[in-house]
């Protein structure tokens, strides 16, 4: 059952006709994110990546997970974002 829900996050190709164009755009945006120094630029690029992801799939299913693994440094970024979120939610002082 869980496996089907994960596949539902990918969505059928007929609902995402621009899936491969979105993947190319995400790869280019991610390259820009990696070299950006200004936090505002990174935020803008991260937003654009999220927008393109909506053209690719519904959510974090197997398709997105496999694709994200091909983006250099994405998993490190993802781990950093989760750690930052928890630090903001549960301050240590």
Which SSEs are present, and which pair or pack?
Elements: H1 2-10, H2 19-35, H3 39-56, H4 62-68, H5 74-89
Structure notes:
The chain is mainly alpha-helical and 93 residues long. Helix content is 72%, strand content 0%. The chain has one domain. α2 runs antiparallel to α3. The longest helix is centred in the middle third of the chain and has 18 residues. The chain is globular and about 40 Å long. The termini are far apart.
Rg calculated over all Cα atoms? 15 Å
Anisotropy-based shape: globular
- Please report the number of helical segments: 5
Average predicted confidence as pLDDT = 82
Count of domain modules? 1
- Helix and strand string, N-terminal first? HHHHH
Structural class determined from secondary elements: mainly alpha
The biggest beta sheet, please? none
Strand content: under 5%
- Total strands: the figure is 0
Core attributes:
93 residues, 5 helices, mainly alpha, 72% helix
Quick gist of this model?
The protein is mostly helical.
């Amino acid at each position: 059952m869980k496996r089907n829900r994960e596949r539902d996050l990918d969505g059928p190709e007929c609902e995402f006709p621009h899936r491969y164009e979105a993947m190319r755009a995400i790869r280019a945006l991610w390259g820009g994110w990696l070299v950006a120094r200004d936090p505002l630029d990174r935020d803008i690029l991260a937003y654009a990546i999220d927008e393109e992801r909506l053209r690719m799939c519904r959510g974090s299913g197997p398709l997105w997970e496999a694709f994200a693994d091909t983006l250099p440094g994405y998993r490190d970024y993802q781990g950093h974002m989760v750690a930052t979120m928890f630090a903001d939610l549960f301050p240590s002082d």
